[in-house]
Amino acid sequence: MRLEVSGSQCMGHGQCQATSPAYYELDDNGFNVLAGQGVIAVPDEQQAAALRGSQSCPERAISILPD
């Protein structure tokens, strides 16, 4: 699985990190550090955490993409 975090949609609510701290990290301003980095491959062992975090985003800024 792959994911993409939209920098223009991320509003810094931090719900992704609150739900899945093992996968998502926030910058000093509370925004997802993956925002604007393009499509990122998610390791198999972190897919469940990545999916939970994406589903918790109130802005739907995290897109899950199939391989």
Q: How would you describe this protein?
A:
Strands 2-1-3 form a three-stranded antiparallel beta sheet, with helices on one face. With 67 residues, it is of the alpha+beta class. It has one domain (2-65): Alpha-Beta Plaits, CATH 3.30.70. The chain is built from two helices and three strands. It is 22% helix and 15% strand.
Task: Outline the secondary-structure elements.
Blueprint: E1 2-5, H1 15-19, E2 40-41, H2 47-56, E3 62-65
Antiparallel strand pairs: 1-2, 1-3
Total E-strand runs: 3
- Give the overall shape, derived from the CA principal axes: globular
Q: Rg from C-alpha positions?
A: 10 Å
Order of helices and strands: EHEHE
Q: What is the number of independent domains? A: 1
Q: Strand percentage, roughly?
A: 5-15%
Please give the share of residues in helix: 10-25%
**Major beta sheet, strand line-up:** 2-1-3
CATH-derived topology: Alpha-Beta Plaits
